[in-house]
What does this fold into?
Amino acid sequence: MASYRNPVYADYFADPFALRHDGVYYAYGTVPEVGRTVPALISDDLASWRPLGDVLVPLQRAGEVYWAPEVALGDDGRFYMYFSVGQEEGEGHRLRVAVADSPAGPFVDADVVLDTDPFSIDAHPFRDDDGSWYLFFCRDFLDGERVGTGIVVDRLTTMTELAGDVCTVVRPYADWNLFQAQRTWYGRTWDWYTVEGPFVRKASGRYHCFFSGGAWRESNYGVSYAVADHPLGPWEVPSDEEPSILRTVPGRVLGPGHASIVASPSGRHDVIVYHGWDPAGHARLMRIDLLEWTPEGPRSDGPSVDPRPVPD
It folds into this structure.
């Protein structure tokens, strides 16, 4: 039986989003390098990946980085990439969309800013069973018990336009969501909390929004989820004490997070695709593990580091 071992790709590849199209897997990620855009990979089995290079045509703006791309196949047969672009530490990041005729690109920016908030990242397009499209993404909240970044959702009236009626999905809610104590941001100093990286999967008639929380550079970063009966909510988090899906394994994997979910080649299993730091904290690397749907909710025994069978 063929096996794999995490990480499944040796180079820096953060915020991995996996798309299956015509029996082939594509992955899109983040690299923290000015001058790069969106790197993509291709695979037949989720375990062995080949680079396609950068697939997003760069915007004519110097000194900026591209974060957390996701790609959706539109009803018109074209592929839409949702991403944010701004400064390296997050200043000025705004959501944009690019279009291509192939999942391998090239993706060309549609000259659209999707959200007018001063900070918008981590866009996740979701198509419901009735064909309706929604965009989950992150904004900053400057009120309440825990100030910081949270997840919202809006309807996509077209693949390049939001309805403008945003609903809150998950705001920071627990101590493990702490991003940075006494962070100076927006000209003030706060204890800043973060919930980010949404990805929605419908199972057993309910919607599950997977998300990451905490500080992406630190050991408290991990993956949990919220549930709802409709994409617009209301949403609730079943467990608030610690990340329920993925968490740090001391000395082996640091800060696993920003997950996407894709079906295995046979379609019998779900696979969670995510990044995690190596123990030394040198790079965020792409990893995969099985996601199980149990009576208590979705679970994964990752992040794994030992050899495991290739899915299916």
Observations:
- The chain is about 0% helix and 50% strand.
- The first strand starts at residue 3 and ends at 4.
